[in-house]
Amino acid sequence: MDNLRWDGSQQLHGVPYAYAASAAHHYAPYMHTQVAQHHGQGQALSQAAQAQNGAMMARATIAATAAAQAVLAQNAHQAALQKAAAAQANAATAHKVAKHSGVSSCSTACTSGRQETADADDQVRFLGDRYIVMEKLGEGTYGKVYKALLRDTTDTFAIKKIRIAYEDEGVPSTAIREVALLKECDHPNVIKLHEVFTEPNALYLVFEHLDMDLRKYIKTHGSMHDPAKLKSGVYQCMRGVEFCHAHRILHRDLKPQNLLVDVKAFRIKLADFGLARSYSVPLQNYTHEVVTLWYRAPEILLGSAKYATPADIWSMGCIMAEMATGHALFPGDSEIDTLYKQFRVLGTPDDEAWAGVSDLKDYSQAFPAWKDTGLAQVKQQGPGLGDGGLEMIKACLRYSPVHRLGAGKLLRDPYFNGVEVGAPSG
After folding, report:
1. 168, 186, 253, 333: the active-site residue
2. Which secondary-structure segment (H or E) carries 157?
3. Residue 376: inside a domain
4. What does the pLDDT look like over 103-136, one tens digit per residue?
5. What pTM was computed for the model?
6. How many other C-beta atoms lie within 10 A of the C-beta of residue 402?
7. Which structural domain range is residue 305 located in?
8. Alpha helices per DSSP H over 204-297
9. Which residue among 121, 123, 139, 353 is least enclosed by CB atoms within 10 Å?
10. Which residues have CB under 8 Å from 135's CB, separation 6+?
């Protein structure tokens, strides 16, 4: 059959057409069988190829999965090594904390790994990425204060945490003022702000740490009957006030709780500038919701919207009397009660003693008429004052703000002659 070729005539290369047709009819079944066999072989080959490709793909998938598992295992191993290293570092830091604070290193290490979440249980252990909390020192209107240790050293700091309520006022204006004012302050009798950092819901102010506030110091060590020690304490407070006023800063919340003490060196520093603000001339109208009641000046209690540095000086007079006697001078439970306590000690003011007092909106001609006691009880309870100390308090507690001496003039008073800053604490 290979030699049979159709040439378009009645013959196939010399073979009659009839014979060619007969030959074709004879070989047709054979040819059909051959085609079918070839077709079956093609399908078999195709199926074999598909099976081979599937096997190769399966082997590739298994290999890729094994490789991925190997990578994951390696990553997990590295993570475990890092976690172990972090645990070792935390243990070392915990040992530092224990050594520095005297607490059990085991109890510190057991809790040092916890990150701060909600601090409702006050079990905060980390602030930022550099500070480890040792204890909570206190809590106020806007937040909490912690004693913290810098990770890489044994230096301690006081960290004020201020919550940021974005749904309300955001960052409190008091915090913004405090940061803005303290960044300008560099004085041995003013608390030092070291740094500020933030987290999504809180602002942190990092201050130098001192042992306790003046109120706690008085409760612990008693009133200052030693004249040299009392004089040193008042002098340091007044220096801090003078610095602030020279930089046009009103503190507006001077009280023993806001004066911090380094017990060993007997260093005193002004702190908590949350209500402080800068002032300018001419004076503006300010809120009267400032200064804790017991230390609030009478012009503010009587409704004056304009006040300035004499308000801080009044507070200093109250603080000095408390340092000498161990008791608050005007411990009122309301504005009118505080006023009446002032009047009982210093006498009820009138226009003769305080020009223009009757024009203040909360002044009343019906106020009881008390006489000035001359601070007799303060003199009796504060033997460390002497005549010079008593006159210093009187100068601070003059009713008329115009006649109250400034901090600079008070520091030049003979009472402070020979004063030694950092007197012995005994």
Report:
1. 253
2. strand 156-163
3. yes
4. 333 333 333 333 343 344 455 577 767 899 999 9
5. 0.70
6. 10
7. 217-416
8. 214-221, 227-246
9. 121
10. 146, 147
